[in-house]
């Protein structure tokens, strides 16, 4: 995104530092205009200092070239001053100005845009000093040189290897836990459903984490991957909540002298809550903003931060943790 300031249109919101920035630019334009003498034949003035870079060109009767290119700090403005001078008593002037540090005052946060805005060039002021008429019969072309953004650091093979080894070890222990809950039920009155499916959802989400950076080029596959990962992570928190509720119910029963019954909610109800609630969460999220799933800036298939879509995960997690703290 490039910043161009002119008197004829205001692009920034007039609050905060934007007022200061506009005042500084207006003062600078006034000072630059004092350097223009319409009586002189076409001139080309350039000022280069650490704080200011300015290029002023004028056209008056007798000038040899009416098509002018003004340049400051690699930024060019091509304007036909001869055509402009025809409506301005035969003379016209144009100027391009850059004040160092203006991006700190007129930063990207002052721009009203629906998408994410990034300031990727200097703040440019283009104006017509001592030129009363500004009806352009020909277009004015700007060539803006974006600032160089450093290349992202190269991936660290050791960290990638360490991450994958850690996930694989985690999957191994999840597999042991799943086999334990499936095959080693010592008491028929103990319901291991929540523990079992907590391990299953966590294991599957870890498994997807091994591959969620492999499908970023395939838009549909990446959306599906991100949606599945969202579903499994939300489901794991629901199963943790259900397990906490099971344990809370069991502890309450232990405080009373009574015949031990099978603890917790019936298994069908656990399935309905454990997988139904995450399904509703992901379904509603996809209906509201389907583009929220896909490749992110980190080059993985996950939830975008655009339109605060990441709250589709953060919101349910905070709600479940809050309810757990209040109840238990």
UniProtKB/TrEMBL annotation:
Coiled-coil zones: none
A Pfam family in this protein? 7tm_2
Which InterPro entries does the record match to this protein?
GAIN_dom_sf, GPCR_2-like_7TM, GPCR_2_secretin-like
Q: Which GO terms describe its biological process?
A: adenylate cyclase-activating G protein-coupled receptor signaling pathway; cell surface receptor signaling pathway
The residues the entry assigns to the signal sequence are: none
| Key words, A-Z | Membrane, Transmembrane, Transmembrane helix
What's an example of a GO molecular-function annotation for this chain? G protein-coupled receptor activity
User: Is this entry keyworded Transmembrane?
Assistant: yes
Which ranges does the record mark as transmembrane?
Answer: 161-184, 196-212, 224-248, 269-289, 309-327
Q: Does the keyword Membrane apply?
A: yes
Taxonomic superkingdom: Eukaryota
| Domain G-protein coupled receptors family 2 profile intervals | 159-328
Q: Enumerate the subcellular locations listed in this protein's record, separating them with semicolons.
A: Membrane
Q: How does it sit in the membrane?
A: Multi-pass membrane protein
- Return the GO cellular component terms, semicolon-separated: plasma membrane
User: Which PANTHER family would you find in this protein's record?
Assistant: ADHESION G PROTEIN-COUPLED RECEPTOR E1-RELATED, ADHESION G-PROTEIN COUPLED RECEPTOR
Q: What is this protein called?
A: G-protein coupled receptors family 2 profile 2 domain-containing protein
